[in-house]
UniProtKB/TrEMBL annotation:
Pfam families linked: F-actin_cap_A
Organism of provenance: Clathrus columnatus
Keyword 4Fe-4S attached: no
InterPro entries the UniProt entry points to: CapZ_alpha, CapZ_alpha/beta, CapZ_alpha/beta_2, CapZ_alpha_1
PANTHER family: F-ACTIN-CAPPING PROTEIN SUBUNIT ALPHA
Protein name: F-actin-capping protein subunit alpha
SUPFAM superfamilies the record matches: Subunits of heterodimeric actin filament capping protein Capz
Length: 286
């Protein structure tokens, strides 16, 4: 296979990596390609795309919080420089090492920063209640548009599963609406390989108070609406899988064996199948 074809295949593997397993995939790809220089150069675009799509988080030097890496947080005109709106910093991000460097301060917009900060505070309180270990980042997009991003990861390789929750809410004050995207990915790999991938994109209206006055109270109301949508989505998923277990899977099984009689499993060891078969030989003409 030509090196370009190898890198195209490797990129597909990387983009399909389950949550928390990107390093395992990279190690496997490295064993296949056996050319570290080619690999590092060739997988950079795929790694960049994967990190942006998956809301990979990074520690900020000398700070005790993490920042979500995403297209919304990218500094205009710079491919790998991102904003940390909480600390009012920008930084360069290494997509291979997952590290931040070259940290620089920036001045936020005076008009939009108070409401962005209020949304951030309300979001941090929300994930503290519902997403232990979760990370959120809130960005200003325009004078009337904000992005709220949430990611929560659960890695449990000793029990053969991993999962990631991602959600993004584009709050448009001028339109009075919120465009949403909720994505869930789960990988279960004990004696098999099963992946779950769901996407939910609700759109809902902002409360009038949030449109007329952008303050801490309206920020809390917006987060309450987000909480309601996420709760509805989780409850719908729980009901779907309950119905699947109770109805769909059971529908794949025979209600009765082919002889149209239920089998008494408590007495199965007492059945004398040989004797019964011997007694039926005459009926079939020996």
């Amino acid at each position: 296979m030509h090196p370009d074809e190898q890198m195209a295949v490797a990129a597909k593997f990387i983009l399909q990596s389950p949550p928390g397993e990107i390093n395992d995939v990279l190690n496997d790809v490295r064993n296949i390609i056996s050319d570290d220089e080619l690999l590092q150069e060739g997988v950079q675009p795929a790694l960049r795309q994967y990190n942006l799509e998956q809301f990979v988080v990074v520690d900020i030097p000398e700070h005790d919080h993490q920042v979500i890496i995403s297209d919304v947080g990218r500094v205009e005109g710079e491919q790998d420089r991102f904003r940390d709106p909480q600390a009012k910093l920008t930084f360069h991000f290494d997509h291979l090492r997952l590290e931040a460097s070259d940290v620089q301060a920036y001045e936020p917009d005076e008009d939009t920063e108070p409401f962005r900060s209020a949304l951030e505070k309300a979001t941090l309180a929300y994930i503290g209640d519902h997403f232990p270990g979760g990370v959120s980042t809130v960005h200003t997009i325009t004078a009337s548009k904000y992005a709220i991003q949430i990611v929560a990861n659960k890695y449990n390789p000793s029990n053969f599963w991993s999962g990631r929750w991602r959600s993004e809410y584009i709050v448009d004050i001028s339109e009075g609406k919120v465009q949403s995207k909720i994505l869930i990915n789960v990988h279960y790999f004990e004696q098999g390989n099963v992946q779950l991938s769901t996407t939910f994109t609700p759109v809902f209206d902002l409360p009038p108070a949030a449109v007329s006055s952008q303050n801490a109270s309206s920020a809390s109301k917006i987060i309450a609406l987000i909480e309601a949508r996420e709760s509805e989505h989780q409850e719908a998923m729980i009901q779907t899988y309950f119905d699947m277990s109770e109805k769909t899977f059971k529908g794949l099984r025979r209600a009765l064996p082919i002889m149209r009689q239920k089998l008494d499993w408590d007495k199965v060891t007492g059945y004398k199948l040989g004797a019964e078969l011997a007694g039926t030989r005459g009926a079939f003409g020996n």
